[in-house]
Amino acid sequence: MNIRTALLSSLALAVALPAFAADPDLTVLDWSGWDIPEVLTGYKEKNGDIPTYSFFADDDEAFQKASSGFRADIGHPCAASVGRYRDADLIEPWDTSKIPEFANIAPRMLNSSIFKDDKGVWFVPTDYAYTAIAYNTKEVPAEDVKSLKVFTDPKYAGRISMPDSTDDVWSLAFLATGVTSWDNVTDEQFKVAADWLRSVHPNVRAYWADPAEMAQLMATGEVLVAWSWNDGVAALQAEEFPVGFERSPAEGVATWFCGYVNFKDGPGKEEKAYDFINSLLAPSSAEGLLNALGYALSNDKAMATVPEDKLKEHFVDPVTTTLLPQTPVSQEFRTKMIEEFEAIKAGF
User: Fold this and answer.
1) Does the entry feature the keyword Cytoplasm, yes or no (predicted)?
2) Which domains does the chain have, with CATH numbers?
3) What is the pLDDT along the chain (348 residues), one digit of tens a residue?
4) Max Cα separation, the chain?
């Protein structure tokens, strides 16, 4: 099975089977494809089965599901979305005394009062990676991707792809217009970034929904340049497609990280939520997560045991260029980004 059929098959299954029932005492609201045995070894050994999963495709869908009454025990938002769950009073703090590996989580991933305050720890970071420029190395000269200007280059009109994701698209737009942190963005900076996205929109062949779609677009040759997560690129390279990943353009790249929140009044057993987190953060999960999904584990001590060549193979070795972290934003600003992006995609 080649990368096109493998990725498309996994996507089809995720769409056709949005929930996977197993252990009825823990329901996890999670990204499609995260029911991977490589990070569930400890949980399954203790509880005899993996948790019950309900899958989502993006952060907005997950929040809508949770805020509409769907009952899960834990959920897996990315950092920029955590504030929404707190504002909606959907979650409660974790008891980190029950999470032995919590002390080894990279401090940079907890540097927010939205994640951690005097009331407790509201978010346990578990995974991270980078978003940068994927490109067809046979048809796109390396010098063309040394700048984010490649997305506005008329030479690639109709051969560009960007994520159908508020966070990822705006991180690109802000970087391209000289903003390296989206904290305290001014109205003027926002307008400049929005105008840049409008200038790119006519060049876009498709806004990809997940790495499988991005990989398909590049594998078929429809798209030559994409703003992409690392995992789809690594998968394509493993199948010997001529795809590169430029992680040091002049303006910089983005990094994202995700983790788990603890829902109030979940239907399952609270202790199993901790079994799950402890299984995922276990040192043995570091290479398993990397091999299965291409993401790095937030457990710095565990990641230090992974060979450097393995990190480079999956493009999660440290980035030395300017880095825009997709950190939490206010609900007001997030709504503003969502509405503007939807208007741009609609041609307004």
Assistant:
1) no
2) 3-128+256-313 (3.40.190.10), 130-254+321-345 (3.40.190.10)
3) 333 334 434 443 443 344 556 899 999 999 988 999 999 999 999 999 999 999 998 888 999 999 999 999 999 999 999 999 999 999 999 999 999 999 999 898 999 999 999 999 999 999 999 999 999 999 999 999 999 999 999 999 999 999 999 999 999 999 999 999 998 899 999 999 999 999 999 999 999 988 889 999 999 999 999 999 998 998 899 899 999 999 999 999 999 999 999 999 999 999 999 999 999 999 999 999 999 999 999 999 999 999 999 999 999 998 989 999 999 888 899 899 999 999 999 999
4) 56
Indicate the residue type of 157.
A
Q: List, in order, residues 6 or more apart from 68 with CB less than 8 Å away.
A: none
Q: What is the CA angle 183-261-116, rounded to 5?
A: 50
Phi-psi group of 201: left, alpha or beta (phi > 0 → left; psi -120 to 50 → alpha; rest → beta): alpha
Q: Distance of alpha carbon 277 from its chain centroid, rounded?
A: 18
Q: Which of 125, 211, 111 is nearest to 161 (CA)?
A: 211
Instruction: Please give the Cα distance from 63 to 58 (Å, whole number).
Output: 9
Distance CA 172, CA 227 (A): 8
Indicate yes or no: pTM above 0.90.
no
How far apart CA 164 and CA 121 sit, in angstroms, is: 30
